[in-house]
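Hey team,

Filing this mostly as a record. A colleague (T.K.) asked me to run one chain through the structure pipeline before their review meeting, and I want the input and output archived in the tracker in case anyone asks later how it was produced. No errors, nothing strange. Just documentation.

Input sequence:
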Amino acid sequence: MDLKKVMYALIAVAVLLAGALAYIWWSKSSLVKELNVEKEELTSQMIALQNDYASLSSDYDMINSQLDSSREEVSQLIERIKKTEATNRSKMRQYEKELGTLRSIMRNYIVQIDSLNTLNKRLTADAAAARREAAESRRQSEELSKTVETLSDQVAVGSVVKARGLKLEAFNSSDKVTDRSSRVVRLIASLSLVENDLAKKGPVRVYIRVKDPDGILLTNSTQRTFSVAGGEPMICTASREVDYEGKEVEMGIYVNEIPSYVKGIYTVEAYTDQTKLGEAELMLR
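Output structure:
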C-alpha cells in the first residue's frame, strides 16, 4: 500500500514537472516569437528608411556626398540586424537607437535641401528679373549680366564657409606689432569666418601659407599637408581648428620657429578644405 502511494506521488511529481517544462518551453517559444516579430518590424523600418534615403536627392554636390555616406550606414545597419539573433536584446536596443539617429539625420538633410531650394528659387527669380532689365536697357546690360552670374555663383557656393579681414602682422619679443625685420619673433595671420546659416556646422580647420620676399614658403614643425576641394596637395605654414556654428568667428594663427626674417614683402594665403579664403601682404623693413 505504501509502495502504491509512493508511486502515485512520483507520478504526480512527474506530471507537474512535465507541465512546468511544457509551460517554460511554451513561454520561451512565445518570447522568441515576439522577439523575432520585433526584429522583423525593426528590419522593415530600416528598409523603409533606406527607401526614404534612396528617394532623397539634391542639386548640391556636398549634400549628395553626405547622403551617400548615410545611405551606406543604413545598408550596413540592415546587414547587422539580419545577422544578429533576435534574442540579443541589447544589440536590438542599440540598433533601434541607431535607427532613430539616422532618421534625425535624414530630417536635417530635408531641412537643408528645402532651405537651399528656397534660396535657389529666390535667386533664380532675381536673375530672371535682372535679365529682363538688361533687355530693356542696353546701357545696363553688362552690369545686370554680372549680377546674374553673381547670383548663380551664390547658389553653387551657398554652403561654403567664407572669410573677411585677412591680415598678416609681425610681433617682437615684447609681443608688440613691429615692421622691423630684425625684431620679428613671430607672425600672426588674423581673419574672421563670416556668418553663414547654410554652411555645415562643426570643426573647421584654416590653413595659411606664408611666403617670404623671394617667394619661399615659410615652414616649421607645425606644417602639414592639405588640399582644397580634392585638388593637389599643398604644404601649409601653420593651421588652426575652430568650432564653427554658422556665426561669425574671429581667429588668429601664429607662425613661430622661423629663424630669421628679411626685408621685403611677405604674402599670406588662407584656405579651408573647401576653398581659398583670401590673401594679404606685410612689408618688413
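Quick notes for T.K.: The chain is about 50% helix and 20% strand. The first strand starts at residue 163 and ends at 171.
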